[in-house]
Amino acid sequence: MDAKSNKLFRTILITLTALILSSGPALAAATINGAGATFPYPVYGQWAWQYNKETGVKLNYQSIGSGGGIRQIKAKTVDFGASDAPLKAAELDEAGLLQFPMIMGGVVPVINVPGIEDGALKLSGTTLANIFLGKISTWNDAAIAKENPGLALPETAITVVYRADGSGTTWIFTNYLSKVSPTWKDSIGNAKAVKWPAGVGGKGNEGVASYVQRIKGSIGYVEYAYALQNKLNYSLLQNQAGNYVAPTSAAFQAAAANADWANAEGFYLVLTDQPGAESWPITGASFILVHKEQAKAATAKEVLTFFDWCYRNGASTAEKLDYVPMPEAVVSLVEKTWMEQIKSAGKPVWP
Amino acid sequence: MQTKTHINLDPAFRWLTLASGLAVLLLVGSILYTLVMGAMPALKHFGFGFLTSQEWNPAFMEFGALSSVYGTLISTAIGMLIAVPLSLVIALFLVEIAPPAVRRIVGGAIELLAAIPSIIFGMWGLFVFAPFMADYIQPWLASIAPGFPLFQGPPMGIGMLSAGIILALMVLPFITSVTRDVFQMVPAVVKESAYGMGSTTWEVTRKVTIPYGIQGVVGACFLGLGRAIGETMAVTFVIGNRHEISASLFAAGNSIASTLANEFTEASDDLYLAALIELGLVLFGVTLILQWAARWWLRRTARKMGAVR
Question: pLDDT tens digit string along B259-305?
C-alpha cells in the first residue's frame, strides 16, 4: 500500500469513527418516544417533522390508540402517552401522571338526505339523541319538522351510522348525547364504544364517511376534518345558548375559550355543550400524559420543549389540517402546571 | 480395530425434527396459556354466560360472545358454500378440460389472486363491491324471493352476505390451487384406462379424479376454512360491525376477528380488555372444534369413497 492510499484510508477510518462516536449518544438523547391516540396523529406527525428539521430532535409517535398509549405510559415504555378522552383525576394520581390538552377538534353530524343541502338542516341535541336512539326513524318526523319550518323533508327512513371501532370521537359524541338526553345517559352511556340501539358501524372516520355517502337517508358523526375532506353535508346544531351554529374552526375555538379550564382538576374538562353564543356543542380536546416524577431530567426537558414548540409554532400547521389549536390562556395554564408538578429528583424540570 | 468411515447424521437429524415438532406444540401451548391468563378477569366475572350472552356493552361493562361467534360461523359458512364448489369446478376445468395455454394463464391469475393482501380485499369490498351489492345484487335477491327471511331489510351493500362473498373470493385461490395440484397427481394411466373402457369426461371426473384426490381436496378446504374463520381486515370493512344476531343476511353483523380489530386499540379498562382476549380464546376453541369435526368427517368420507390409506 503506497503512502497516498494509506493516508486516504486513515482519513476515512477517522471520519467514520468520529461519526459513530458523535452520532451514537446524540441520537439516543434526541429521540422522543410517544404512543397513543390516532385522532391527532396527522398533526403530531407534521409537527414532529417540522421540529426535526428545525432542531434535529426526532419524535417517534406510534398511533396505536389511546388504550395502548395509556398502558405504555403507565409501564414507562414511552416518554409520553396520548389519549383522546381525558383520564379522571383519581386515575392520574394513582399512576403519578400529569395530563394536559394539546389540540382540539370538533365532531360533526353528517347527513345524506335527498333534497337537503349542506347546512340546511337544524337539529337540537334532544332530537339528535332521539335519532341515534332510534326513536325518530324517518326524516319527516314531527320533531325534525318542528325545528325546520319551510324545509321539504323526505319520507326516507333514517339509517344511523356509528363508529364500529372504539374511538375518542365516539367518546366525545356520546358524552354530548349524555349531557343533552337523560335517556341516552341512563340507557346507552358515555364510552369509546357503546351498545348502539340502531344502525350500522363503519371502521374509522373514513368508514363512517363512506357509509354515509353510500346509504340514502343516513346520519353519522365524524371528525370535522373528515366532513370537509369527504365533502359531506353537515347539519347545524343547537348549542346551550339556543343558537343553531355551523361547525367551523371559530365555533370550536369559542367552545374552548368559554370552558372553565382553571377550575378543572387535572385538566379533566370535556368541551361538549359549553356555554357561549357561538360555541359548537360537540368539541373535544386530545390529551398528552407524562409522568410527574421523571427519572431523567434531560429527556423530560426535551419532551416539554417539544410540546412548548407545538403550542407556540404549531398553530398554522394544525389549522391547515383542520384541527383547532389551544387558546393562549390555556397554554399558559398548562405550562404553569408543568413548572409546579413535573419534577426530577425533587427539582422542577420546566422551564 | 474400529475405523471411522463416516459421521452418522441420523441422530442429529432426528433431534432437529423432534425439536421443531415440539416447538410447534410449545408455541400453541404458550398462546393458549397467554390467552387464558389474559382472559382470566373476564372468565371469572362472566363465567359460562359469556358464551350464551348476546350483550356487548362497553359503557356498562357487559360482554357476551354469542353474536361474534354466530357472525364468525355464518360468514365463514357463506364463504365456504360459495368458494368450495367454485374452486372444485375451476380446478377440474384447469386439469381436465382447459388447453395448456389457458391453463397457464388462468392458473397464474389464481395464484396472483392469492397474493393480494386482505386489506385490499377490504377496501375493494367497501368502495367497489358494496355499492354494486346495494344497487344490483341485493335488490335482485329481494325481488326473486320476496318475504324470504334471509333477504330482508334495506339493501345497504354491507352486512353478513357481503362479508361472506368477500371471504369466498379470498379463500377461492387457496382451495383452487391446492385442489388443482391434487387432481394433477391422479396417475394418467388410471384415467386413461377409464377412458379406454368408454367412460365420458364427466364419468372419469366423478368416479376417478375426485375419489382419488378427495383427501387432498378436503385438506385444501381446510386451508381455506382456516383463512376464512380468522380473516380480519376484509371482514371488518364490509360486515357492518353490529353486535347483534339478525336472521337477514343483508343486516349488519360482526365476527370475532372484526370485533378484536375494532375494539382492541381503545380498550383501556381491564375487564374490557380481558373480554376481548376471551373472544380470542373462543376463536381458538371454535377453530379447534372445527378442525376435529373436519378430521372426523374426512376419515368417514375417505372410508366411504373407498380410498386406500
Answer: 998 888 778 788 998 999 999 999 999 988 888 887 887 778 777 76
Give A16: exposed, middle or buried? Use CB within 10 Å, 0-12, 13-18, 19+.
exposed
Cβ contact, residue pair A195, B55, below 8 Å: yes
Look up residue A138 and give its DSSP letter: B
Cα–Cα distance, B120 to B112 (Å, whole number):
13
Contact across the interface for A174 and B59, Cβ inside 8 Å: yes
Which residues are CB-contacts of A202 (< 8 A; sequence separation ≥ 6)? A161, A162, A163, A164, A208, A209, A210, A211, A220, B241
Asked if B156's CB is within 8 angstroms of A159's CB, the reply is: yes
At A80, phi and psi to the nearest 5? -145, 155
Helix (H, G, I), strand (E, B) or coil at B261: helix
Residue A62: closest C-alpha in chain B:
B265
Of B60, B134, B267, the CB nearest to A67: B267
- Within 8 A of A200 by CB-CB distance, chain B residues are 156, 158-159, 240-242, 252
Task: Please give the Cα distance from B265 to B256 (Å, whole number).
Answer: 15
What is A167-198 written as a DSSP string?
-HHHHHHHHHHHHH-HHHHHHT-SSSS---SS
Closest Cβ opposite residue B263 in set A38, A165, A168: A165
**A235 within 8 A of A122, measured Cβ to Cβ:** yes
**B158–A191 C-beta distance less than 8 A:** no
Residue A214 to residue B157, Cβ atoms within 8 A: yes
Q: Is the ipTM of this complex over 0.90?
A: no
Q: Are the Cβ atoms of A164 and B241 closer than 8 angstroms?
A: yes
Question: Rounded to two decimals, what is the model's pTM?
Answer: 0.78
Other residues' Cβ atoms within 10 Å of the Cβ of residue A224: 25
Contacting residues of A for B158, CB less than 8 Å apart: 200, 211
- pLDDT per position as a tens digit, B138-156: 888 888 877 788 888 777 8
Per-residue buried b or exposed e for A260-292, using 16+ beta carbons within 10 Å of the residue's own CB: ebeeeebbbbbbbbbebebbbbbbbbbbbbbbb
Hey, what's the cell of A135? 326513536
